[in-house]
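Is this the right way to post structure tokens for a design question? Let me know if I should format differently. Anyway, here goes:
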């Protein structure tokens, strides 16, 4: 018996939808090492879990009739699926249809899955590959972006929003991700710019190389816009699955627990000799973190930008945590404008998604100088204070070495609201480093000494011995305990357990006024 022609018609339409802008354009996409939306979603989601919504929609916004052709789906694939058995909503732009550009209809499809994600309290993941607002749709495409931006902002801190940049993302295709929690870029494939090279050429006649305008290296190491950078689309999709494992599905859930075979009581003797005796000799805070967290779980964020600080997700005893630390081997772990922004953003992301914060402190303070002052270090540094003070998740800090001046206060000090503060015996908690303090306090004595430079060294040493240690701060009640470095892992895991039911409601208000 021959099949019902209506069913055959449905099948052929589905086939047509999968072909997007046609076989020729798909071949071009493949030749660039890029995939189609369906191929990408197959890799992103658990096998067989993707369900598409509105696949038969076609472009409605081109009133001037400038579009040469209508395509089923209108350049985006939307729907829902699962990652590690948890529901997510997704949209994937199709570069083979008008360069994946955002039409009014495309916006409608994207907003629909964003709304469903919000109503169901699950993440929304965007796979972006788009030339921005579709010119043919004029103001309708601009309005379409406004609809998305508004949702990005309003749903921020309620459900995780993750953006995978899988092509040249211009205009709104860069701004929407900028409003989301995490941006993943692919080397030599992803670009983010507000104005694309074609438009720059048309307007100014200037020919700009997309890579140096807004390639992955630029955004991963100069602008700080990319949170994660990888070498291929396949890696980006796998990384997105990994990242979600650290995040709850929404702001009233806790992040998923992942059992670990790394013993929570594991002591790490190597840590006891990691901090050099000479305070000026650097060591690797990355190594410290690696010794403490569940083996292999540290996922660094913005690793190549503002490298004087480290932020990243990890697990301790199977529970997700956010790690913030200074890297003493880069600019001595000083706090500057970019590192302040990096910490602030990360602390706020952890706070909105119930991820406890563990801070490792080794910083000589804020970077002095005209550039920093003129660049607004007061405003940027204030953000770190604001973010730590505002965060209600469990907060633990461990001072490994220097915690001087502003760095002591800012990096999760007791009276800024950190729940439990630990210090290693190598900790130096003081207003200034010994040399700076001795210079100011004993200036006259140094100047009048027969050998001023020897006197300066002697007095600095005396100051260091008396004040640059954790015992002075502990005696004053500023430190909860001084621990051996090797016991940090069991100590922090036990502390996290003791803080798990922390209840710390904030006074009611519309929202604060963070100094941005
Ligand atoms: C309509 C567009 C388009 C656009 C590209 N295309 N951009 N169609 N509207 N904005 C189409 C091309 O005509 C082409 O169609 C196909 O997409 C692929 O584009 P190519 O240029 O051939 O590809 P490529 O060389 O890879 O370059 C991609 C690109 C470049 C870097 C994205 O096209 C570009 O610079 N486009 C302009 C990007 C831009 O500045 N957008 C900003 C929009 S303003 P065919 O039919 O040949 O396949 C905006 C407002 C938001 O987004 C405001 C935010 C606040």
């Amino acid at each position: 018996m021959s099949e019902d022609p209506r069913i055959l018609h449905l099948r052929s339409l589905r086939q047509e939808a999968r072909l997007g802008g046609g076989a020729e354009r798909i071949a071009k996409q493949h030749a660039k090492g890029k995939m189609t939306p369906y191929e990408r979603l197959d890799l992103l989601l658990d096998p067989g879990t993707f369900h598409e919504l509105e696949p038969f929609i076609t472009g409605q916004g081109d009133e001037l009739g400038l579009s040469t052709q209508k395509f089923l789906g209108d350049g985006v694939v939307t729907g829902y699926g699962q990652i590690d058995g948890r529901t997510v909503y997704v949209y994937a732009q199709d570069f083979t249809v008008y360069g994946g550009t955002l039409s009014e209809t495309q916006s409608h499809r994207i907003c629909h899955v964003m709304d469903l994600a919000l109503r169901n309290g699950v993440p929304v993941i965007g796979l972006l590959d788009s030339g921005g607002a579709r010119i043919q749709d004029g103001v309708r495409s601009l309005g379409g972006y406004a609809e998305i931006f508004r949702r990005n902002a309003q749903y921020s801190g309620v459900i995780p929003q993750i953006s995978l940049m899988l092509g040249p993302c211009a205009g709104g295709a860069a701004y929407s991700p900028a409003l989301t929690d995490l941006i993943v870029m692919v080397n030599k494939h992803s670009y983010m710019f507000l104005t694309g090279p074609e438009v720059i050429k048309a307007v100014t006649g200037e020919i700009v190389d997309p890579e140096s305008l807004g390639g992955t290296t630029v955004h991963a190491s100069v602008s700080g816009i990319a949170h994660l950078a990888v070498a291929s689309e396949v890696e980006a999709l796998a990384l997105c699955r990994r990242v979600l494992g650290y995040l709850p599905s929404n702001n009233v859930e806790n992040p998923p627990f992942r059992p670990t075979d790394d013993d929570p009581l594991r002591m790490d003797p190597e840590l006891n000799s990691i901090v050099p005796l000479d305070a000026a000799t650097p060591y690797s805070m990355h190594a410290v973190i690696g010794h403490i967290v569940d083996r292999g779980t540290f996922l660094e964020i913005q690793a190549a930008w503002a490298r004087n600080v480290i932020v990243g997700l990890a697990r301790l005893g199977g529970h997700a945590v956010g790690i913030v630390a200074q890297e003493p081997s880069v600019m001595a772990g000083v706090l500057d404008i970019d590192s302040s922004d990096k910490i602030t953003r990360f602390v706020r992301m952890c706070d909105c998604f119930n991820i406890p914060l563990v801070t490792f402190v080794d910083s000589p303070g804020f970077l002095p100088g005209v550039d920093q002052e003129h660049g607004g270090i007061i405003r940027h540094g204030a953000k770190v204070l604001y973010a730590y003070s505002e965060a209600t998740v469990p907060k633990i800090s461990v001072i490994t070495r220097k915690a001087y001046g502003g760095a002591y206060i800012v990096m999760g000090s007791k009276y800024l609201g950190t729940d439990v503060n630990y210090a290693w015996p190598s900790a130096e908690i003081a207003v200034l480093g010994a040399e700076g303090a001795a210079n100011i306090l004993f200036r006259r004595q140094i100047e009048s000494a027969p050998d001023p430079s020897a006197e300066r060294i002697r007095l600095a040493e005396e100051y260091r011995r008396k004040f640059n240690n954790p015992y002075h701060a502990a005696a004053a009640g500023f430190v909860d305990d001084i621990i051996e470095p090797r016991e940090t892992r069991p100590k922090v895991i036990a502390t996290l357990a003791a803080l798990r039911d922390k209840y710390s409601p904030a006074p009611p208000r519309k929202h604060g006024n963070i100094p941005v």
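Format looks fine. Someone answered above. Worth noting: Residues 269-432+469-498 form a domain with the 2-enoyl-CoA Hydratase; Chain A, domain 1 fold (CATH 3.90.226.10). The pocket of hexanoyl-coenzyme A is lined by residues 98-99, 101, 131-135, 145, 168, 170-172, 175, 195-199 (CB under 6 Å).
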